[in-house]
């Protein structure tokens, strides 16, 4: 079955963008000009423009016209074993940004108590709905929201004396190292559970994504030598701007 005309126009314009005929940052012809070129009505052109906007290939600028979006340079996150502080609360994030010559920044730190989500409670070995401590923060690359990270800690760590977990302030040495010094909870291993799913409506708006976008959601659980789960860090990564690297052993060069 033949594609609707607006999708055929959208595909043609997409190919022009991907091939460079329409350059990144270039202004698109007007609706009237596109209608004349493809011999279709303005409504058909608008449907094609809407499709390309959903795919984030173009962006309307009120009063200025419609432009091809700038290309996104993906940020590479290293998931290799024993990197830094287990990528917990962004401990390796600044070094990664520096190595890739990217500008990085972070939003305000959110700290509080929350009923634990079922999948996180299962990873922590806690009953569902158990109260846990959360520490969350948005992370930016080149002033664009790139990922969002939330760490979940058993309330027991606070009750046992790790009081800084519930303070709305950065733990400069890293929460994992802090728990090691405060409670003797030494992380010796971690496990990543990597999932991919469609972006939720609020995530699409928050990250500026099309409705068809996908999200990586990585659950990282840190463990002590006896298998006790210290914390679970959940990070959301839009698939359009993130890539991952994994190195099992040291390689030459």
Written overview of the protein:
This protein is an alpha+beta fold and 253 residues long. It has two domains: 5-68, Arc Repressor Mutant, subunit A, CATH 1.10.10; 75-245, 3-Layer(aba) Sandwich (Chorismate lyase). The protein is built from eight helices and eleven strands. The protein has helices spanning 5-19, 31-38, 42-54, 93-99, 118-124, 155-159, 175-183, 201-207, and strands at 58-61, 65-68, 75-78, 104-106, 110-115, 131-141, 144-154, 189-198, 214-223, 229-238, 242-245. Strands 4, 5, 6, 7, 8, 9 and 10 form a seven-stranded antiparallel beta sheet that branches. Strands 1-2 form a two-stranded antiparallel sheet. It has a two-stranded parallel ribbon with strand order 3-11. A hairpin with a 5-residue loop joins strand 9 and strand 10. 26% of the residues are buried. The model has no long low-confidence stretch (mean pLDDT 89).
């Amino acid at each position: 079955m033949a594609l609707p005309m607006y999708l055929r126009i959208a595909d043609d314009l997409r190919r022009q963008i991907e091939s460079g005929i329409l350059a990144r940052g270039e202004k698109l012809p007007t609706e009237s000009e596109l209608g004349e070129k493809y011999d279709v009505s303005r409504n058909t052109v608008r449907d094609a423009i809407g499709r390309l906007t959903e795919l984030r290939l173009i962006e309307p600028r009120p009063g200025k016209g419609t432009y091809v979006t700038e290309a996104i340079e993906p940020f590479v996150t290293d998931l290799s074993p024993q990197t830094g502080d287990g990528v917990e609360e962004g401990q390796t994030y600044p070094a990664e940004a520096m190595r890739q010559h990217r500008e990085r920044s972070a939003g305000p730190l959110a700290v509080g108590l929350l009923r634990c989500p079922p999948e996180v409670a299962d990873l922590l070995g806690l009953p569902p709905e158990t109260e846990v401590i959360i520490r969350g923060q948005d992370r930016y690359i080149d002033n664009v929201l790139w990922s969002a990270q939330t760490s979940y800690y058993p309330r027991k760590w606070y009750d046992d004396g790790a009081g800084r977990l519930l303070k709305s302030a950065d733990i400069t040495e890293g929460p994992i190292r802090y728990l090691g010094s405060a409670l003797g909870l030494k992380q010796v291993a971690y496990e990543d559970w990597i999932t991919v799913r469609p972006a939720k409506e609020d995530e699409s708006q928050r990250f500026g994504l099309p409705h068809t976008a996908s999200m990586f959601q990585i659950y990282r659980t840190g463990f002590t030598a006896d298998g006790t789960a210290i914390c679970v860090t959940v990070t959301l990564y839009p698939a359009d701007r993130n890539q991952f690297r994994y190195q099992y052993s040291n390689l030459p060069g």
